Amino acid sequence: MLKNYFKTALRSLLKHKVFTIINVVGLAIGIGAALVIALVVQFDFSFDKFEPDGSHIYRVVSTYTYQGQISFNSGVPVPLHRVIGSVSGLEQAVPFRIYGQDQRIVVPAPNTAPGIFKNQENIIFCDRAYFEMLPYKWLAGSVATALQNPNRIVLTESRAKLYFPDLKPEQVLEKTVIYDDSLKMTVSGVVADLKENTDFNFHDFMSLATAANFKLRPNGGDTDGGYNETSWSSTSSYNQLFIKISKQSSARQTEAQLNTMLKNNLEKSSPGESQTLSLQPLSNLHFSSEYDNFDQRVANKSVLHSLLGVAAFLLILACINFINLTTAQSSQRAREIGVRKTIGGTRQQLISQFLTETFLLTLIAAIISIGLAYLLLIMFADFIPAGISYSMIFTPGMLLFIFILIAVVAVISGFYPAVVMSSYQPVQVLKSNPKTSKGVSFGLRRGLTVTQFVIAQVFIMATILVSNQIHYMLNKDLGFKKDAVMYIRTPYKYANSNLKQVYLNKIKSIPQVETISLGSDAPSSNNSHSTAFSYKDGKTERETDVELKYADDNYLNVYQLKLLAGRNLQPHDSTGAYIINQTYCKFLGFQNPKQAVGKLVKVNDKEVPIIGVVADFYQRSLQYAIKPAAICFSTNNRFTRTLHIALKSGANSSANWKNALIKMESSWQEVFPDDDFEYRFVDESTARFYKAEQNTGKLLKWATGLSVLISCLGLLGLALYTTNQRTKEIGIRKVLGATITQIVTLLSADFIKLIFVAFMIAAPVAWYAMSHWLQNYAYHINPGIWLFVGTILSTITVALLTMSLQTIKAAMANPVRSLKSE
């Protein structure tokens, strides 16, 4: 019986090729998109699920509140890990220290030149507790003794093969590896790389005992790199602490004990300033935007949930499309149903037959969708996480998901048409012109079509809005020049030498260089350094956190920052002077920038004059509001190792810049022969702020295109059904003198009404969702009536083009044929 069902189903699908192709295309698009989205969601939610008792593991993180402003730090004071053992309910404490970035590693070789590995990262100081928290497999050495003494290091298997390609793990023991030309380490262990998805992607593990004996690279912290074993007031994200609590303990109780410990040891805070410790669950590590993720990619749960919504909508559209097309086709199979019932076929047998056809068609669509998924992974390469590959579709879990998806889609798509068509009465359907559909089924088809266009129009409005917001952010005047401006960071290890000045003098003479400045970061940057400023005006003291931009006297000229009052920095201002932005000027209570010039602000118990006020510039993405800022010289060389270069623009500027870059690289090799030459253009850097939005916009465009395509296929099915049902009416109207235009207008009017009904539902839904999304941005567009007018006009245009194929064909048909008697 089952074999007969499949044989009959295959014949039916081949007989109605057009409907089969349309259905297969719609379902393949929906299933293919669902496959890719399932890969992304499954990948991100699989991170750090392999650690023993992972639900009881937390990272201790810090939260700062200052004058109502909240900031987050994933690190903790170093002394905390030495006293945390007194916390009740604590099973394990795992401290480790991240050893900066851009490391230069030298591996000595007895008879050949040493191996040199530049720009290395993912290196930490830790102890045996780290390897007890994460289930590494030891290939050489012992977890008990490998990191017991200073200057000992454990490597992952992949890292050991990189440093010592010809040696087995046990042969690597006692070999020497030198870090940053100064830290000599002896290999004491080799562990297998973690195969599971994890954010703990470190591969060089130095003994934690080494950190106390070595002056660490600062990387933005104090002179000792933030590793101060006695200071509770010094917190750096490089100092990490994970803990595992017992099953009987709660995170809230542990947090309370930690904050009591912090309060007892922390020095007195300034008014309005506070620091608290919190526990971040291990399961949240991959999804937290507040606390850094070891500089790994952070997934967004809201985006993942939105992706699941997109997949569900596309599948719903495909199922609706199938139902509409199948029921529209039902009149062509009415006699087949009547004959089957006449010769004894039961309704259950007919339902089974139709469901078999649906399952077979869905199976074909799923096979095609697997190939379509390969193309989608290529198209969305920028959006898809790097760890996802096409081969993951063929894992047991994904194959099971595909099978379940086929079954669910087949039942949802095929059940209603099977029930409707199997209910036909033989007496009626064997007439020459049977009435095969009740009014309720036609009404349901209209409702399904409205649902399709509600979804499609929401997608259209979202796409238009996101595209305009991205255009607004990329093209908005940021308050500084970003075109034809580049920056180069000199090597950190030469921060205190005069080599950066030597390099500056060399490239200063390049004809294509217009202006050059030495400082910290560009006006708009993800990196920031801030400190507390206070200003006393009579009895009122105004205190707030001010972001600092370290620069020289050419910085304003390179970025063309507009000076509203006062003067620019001059070399003699290196002893102390600030140019503040307009926002801080207003915070101090001065509406006229000239009033602020000459006033004294207190910074670190020292009074420093304000020498100028510049117009506001955006310090970060437009997602954030402009904050008080100041520009000044820095006496700390590590803050002034970036060269900001304004290039000359004009005719053939691209070719001229290429020549300039060649000369800059040549000079770099002369001054810094051991380091790679890297540069960035400022406009490209600011555009990277909106990478996530650009990916979202790209995704929405594809989702909109697919939803409109599937919706139009469904509309075509409804048009086929309607014109078939009104064949005689069309013939009579033509005989009575109706023109083709009048008939096409008559047939299209009902469909246009459906689109307007869908628009009335979609508009408020889209408005609410878009308003909520725009609240994430301090500066955003205001959606106007153009958004809704553009949506309805584009939808009607596409719908008319889709329906015109069938309505014009029906209007031009010979009325003689349609008026034949039954």
Features:
single chain; 822 residues; alpha+beta; 4 domains; 13-stranded mixed β-sheet; 25 helices; 18% strand
How many domains? The number is 4
- The amount of beta strand, in percent, is 15-25%
Q: Which ranges are low-confidence, i.e. pLDDT below 50, for 5 or more consecutive residues?
A: 216-226, 436-440
Extended strand count = 26
The shape, in one word, is globular
The major pleated sheet works out as:
13 strands, mixed
**Helix-strand category:** alpha+beta
- Number of DSSP helices? 25
Distance between the termini: 36 Å
The average pLDDT is 82
Give the radius of gyration: 34 Å
Helix content: 40-55%
Report what the structure shows.
- With 822 residues, the protein is of the alpha+beta class.
- It contains 25 helices and 26 strands.
- The chain has 4 domains: 1-47 and 313-437, no CATH class; 100-215, no CATH class; 441-477 and 690-822, no CATH class; 485-688, no CATH class.
- Helix content is 47%, strand content 18%.
- The strands form 4 sheets. Strands 1, 2, 4, 5, 6, 7, 8, 9, 10, 11, 12, 14 and 15 form a 13-stranded mixed beta sheet that branches. Strands 18, 19, 20, 21, 22, 23 and 24 form a 7-stranded mixed beta sheet that branches. A 4-stranded antiparallel beta sheet has the order 17-25-16-26.
- α9 packs parallel to α12 (396-422) and α9 runs antiparallel to α14 (439-475).
- It starts with a helix and ends with a helix.
